[in-house]
């Protein structure tokens, strides 16, 4: 079914529109959610449902161009999954911090991991363009190399090389700062 028809159905017959959108893009949404949430089945299922509910709620406020529906749905799925992932990490950290039975070593490891993450983000933010954008798109937004290359008008080989060299440079900088890998 064409995207324009799905959009029209979402506006006029929500249940049929959601059925068609799920039928056409359900696999895409599930793939994105699995990449971010890994194999947390309940969270993946909730994320998929939240994605399509969000599409339905916002269908009247969005001006869709030809081909924009797929990207919009993928964007909703990615953001929903990332938000759920971050919420789960916060809950896990809160649980660890609120329980007295956690060993001192576990707390030290958690603090070290957070510190390492801040340093890594700082190093990436100091990268030049387009390396910085390539790293953010690949490792934070989970985009494919091919998609990054198309978006930045680079060859796939160039993006691969920048990722490889960037990882080597980051590894060297992390080691210099005393972070063991």
Automatic annotation (TrEMBL):
Q: Which residues form the RNA polymerase sigma-70 region domain?
A: 24-90
**GO-annotated molecular function:** DNA binding; sigma factor activity
- Stretches assigned to the RNA polymerase sigma factor 70 region 4 type domain: 119-170
Which Gene3D superfamilies does this one have? 1.10.1740.10, Winged helix-like DNA-binding domain superfamily/Winged helix DNA-binding domain
The alphabetical list of record keywords is: DNA-binding, Sigma factor, Transcription, Transcription regulation
User: Which example biological process does GO assign this protein?
Assistant: DNA-templated transcription initiation
InterPro entries given in the database record:
RNA_pol_sigma-70-like, RNA_pol_sigma-70_dom, RNA_pol_sigma70_r2, RNA_pol_sigma70_r4_t2, RNA_pol_sigma_r2, RNA_pol_sigma_r3/r4-like, WH-like_DNA-bd_sf
- The answer to whether UniProt assigns keyword Isomerase to this entry is no
Q: Which Pfam families match?
A: Sigma70_r2, Sigma70_r4_2
**PANTHER family xrefs:** RNA POLYMERASE ECF-TYPE SIGMA FACTO (PTHR43133), RNA POLYMERASE SIGMA FACTOR HI_1459-RELATED (PTHR43133:SF8)
The text of the family note is: Belongs to the sigma-70 factor family. ECF subfamily.
Name of the protein this chain belongs to: Sigma-70 family RNA polymerase sigma factor
């Amino acid at each position: 079914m064409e995207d324009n028809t799905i959009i029209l159905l979402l506006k006029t017959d929500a249940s049929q529109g959601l059925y068609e959108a799920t039928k056409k893009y359900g696999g895409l949404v599930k793939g994105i959610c699995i990449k971010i949430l890994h194999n947390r089945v309940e969270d993946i299922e909730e994320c998929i449902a939240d994605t399509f509910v969000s599409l339905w709620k916002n269908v009247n406020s969005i001006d869709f161009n030809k081909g924009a529906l797929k990207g919009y749905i993928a964007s909703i799925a990615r953001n929903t999954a990332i938000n759920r992932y971050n919420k789960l990490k916060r809950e896990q950290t809160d649980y660890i911090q609120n329980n007295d039975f956690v060993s001192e070593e576990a707390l030290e490891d958690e603090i070290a991991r957070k510190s390492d993450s801040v340093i890594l983000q700082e190093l990436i933010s100091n990268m030049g363009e387009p390396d910085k954008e390539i790293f953010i798109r690949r490792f934070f937004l989970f985009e494919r190399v091919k998609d990054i290359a198309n978006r930045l008008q680079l060859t796939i080989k160039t993006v691969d090389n920048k990722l490889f060299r960037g990882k080597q440079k980051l590894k060297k900088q992390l080691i210099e700062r005393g972070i063991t890998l």
